Each structure stands twice: as C-alpha cells, then as structure tokens.
Amino acid sequence: MKTKNQTASLLSEQFLDAVWLESGLSENTLNAYRTDLAAFEGWLGKKKLALDAVTRAELLGYLAANVRQGLSPRSSARRLSTLRRFYRYLLREALIGEDPTADVRSPSLGRPLPKSITEASVEKLLTAPPETTLGVRDRAMLETMYASGLRVSELVALALNELDLTTGLVRVTGKGGKERIVPLGDEATSRLGDYLKGARPSLLGEQKSGAVFLTRGGQPMTRQAFWQLIKR
Questions:
Q1: Strands 179-183, 169-173: pairing kind
Q2: pTM greater than the 0.70 cutoff
Q3: Which residues make beta-bridge pairs with 211?
Q4: What is the CA radius of gyration of the chain?
Q5: Taking Cα atoms as reference points, which of 185, 153, 191, 151 lies closest to residue 170?
Q6: 2-92 falls under which CATH superfamily?
Q7: What is each CA distance from 83 to 21, 34, 63, 129, 200, in whole angstroms?
Q8: Span 51-100, pLDDT tens digits
Q9: Domain 119-231 classified CATH 1.10.443.10?
Q10: What whole-number distance in Å separates Cα of residue 157 and Cα of residue 151?
C-alpha cells in the first residue's frame, strides 16, 4: 500500500486540500475536519496502527473510547462522518484496499417519544413503585430507551453481553446486523444496575436467559409485551 510511505498527517492534509477544491468547504468546516483527523491520528499513534491496518472492530473501539472520554453522541457522529469521508477518499485514490467505516452506523443522537406512546403512559411507568419487581424493570426499560435513543425492537433484543455498565455503554445491533456503540447516561446506567441486581433475578427464577429484559414469566421481552405494558 502507498500509505506505508506516507504519514497519516500528510494524507490528512492531502484529503483536506482535495475536499476544499472539490466541495468548496468553509474554513470552519475544514478546521472541524482537521481537528477530527488529528484526534484520530493521535489514537493511531498510541495503538501503533497504520491507516490501512484499521479494521471495523478497531474503529468501533475508537468510537467507544471517544464516548468513555465524555464526547457527546453528536460529536462522535461528526468524527465518524469525517473518517467516513476520509477513508472514501483514500479508497478512491487507491491508497487503501478496504474502507473500515463502510458498515459502521453513526452513534444514536436520540429520538423523540414514539407518537403511539402518550405522555400519560410514560409518566405512569416512570412513577411506578420502585420497590416492585415490574416497576424496577419498566423504569429501567424506559430510561434505557430514551437515554440511548433505541428502537423498541433494539431495546427488547438487548443481550447481557452487550451491556457495559462500568463504562456506561451498550453495543446495539440494528437493521442489517450493523452494530453501533451507544452511551447510556447516568440515570439509565443506575436504573439498569438496580434492575440487574434485584428485579431480573426474581423474574428469571430457575430459568436461563441471556436477554436483558424479561417478562413476568421470565421469558425474553417482546415488542408485543412492551406495547402491552405501555397501554395498560
């Protein structure tokens, strides 16, 4: 690969010159690109990685590290957007053989309440008696859903091995099997911790399951069951 004889910094400058000529980007946008690329170059240096050696898994690791350092989902999404354009440029110029950003989704920026969920329904669940098993579960589900912007289908499909409460991150598998790293926020992390320590074992009983959220009978939560508890 040509990149072996060219530094990431030099390639970044070549890329910035190219996008300026092709797209006429403003100085502010170019500076934002430059800042994002400099952060990535710093990470590459610490990992002793070359641009053409970065894999999809390593890129996800970089995005997760950004979140652990306190970067907002919006800023993380911008960094990924910059890297996506950068790697497409390198691929176009035959400087790399594969684009590690191709199957990486942007971090969720959150979403408003689904129209079918009324404010009254949400308020009812959020104020459910916390000492009840189902109340703890329902509060954890809603806090997780709205703090991270998960779809209902993604929420009910969460597995225990996708949660990392130490870092406050969750690995979400969305449409087409694409993965993304999503921050949970302090409140959701706290509610999940309470649920996993007490309510979930009570619901599970003697059964075994890798699902995070369980029904009253100890089975993995389904979309239908979730909507039923919203409507009740």
A1: antiparallel
A2: no
A3: 159
A4: 21
A5: 185
A6: Tyrosine recombinase, N-terminal domain (1.10.150.130)
A7: 18, 11, 11, 46, 40
A8: 888 888 788 888 877 877 777 777 777 888 889 889 989 988 888 888 88
A9: yes
A10: 10
